[in-house]
Amino acid sequence: MDTKQIIAEKIAGEITLSPKPGQTIRKWRKIFDISQSELSMFLDVSPSVISDYESGRRKSPGIQTVRRIIDAFFSLDKKNNSKVLKQYQSMNKENEGIIEIMEYPFAVSVEQFIKQIDGKTLTSKKLFSKKYVNGFTLIDGIKTIKSISYKNYVNLYGWSTERALIFTGVQYGRSPMIAIRIHPIKPSLVVYHSPGGVDPLAVHLAEQEKIPLIVTNISLENLKNKLVTFVR
What we know:
- There is one protein chain.
- The chain has helices at 3-17, 21-31, 36-43, 47-55, 63-79, 83-91, 110-116, 141-147, 174-182, 200-209, 220-228, and strands spanning 98-109, 120-121, 132-140, 164-168, 189-193, 213-216.
- It is an alpha/beta fold.
């Protein structure tokens, strides 16, 4: 099965199985970096049709419409130098240090996400404003910081940068925030799982980058369960 077919089946499955298919369409449209007007023009429909699907005002599209939407994603991506296809190929390579990586069928607010993992906020709550999470990456902090290269850093982000990067096994949290600070790609929020402590520098860097910094001390297995079952 080629890359395009793998992604197409993933998108189709997410849309058809999602409890909020319109929001799932919106999520993938944003991943492909396509505007509502671009998509509507390609499909030869009014922009209001796409808006109605995404908002839930129009009932879920049938399988033929879903197929047309997916075809549009790939055709428009091809005009954009196949950015998404290339990203998937990069993600498919072995990622040492990644414990779990998952995409949600639709975006959830950072505030909801923090509540789900019993998180404690170390930065200003003003940083939550209009921030959403499309998925998460659970990372072995020590192994990743030691082995990951600047080029492979992007693999931590899966399909979307609007995600939570969750580091476990960190001592004081300076290294992860320094790595995030120097890389142009930023997550929606950063979570430290049961750190030995949190260096004030890590909090300061998070504030500077306008990234909420969270701590959770629940067990690793409980954390995994809460992350995976969040939107089911």
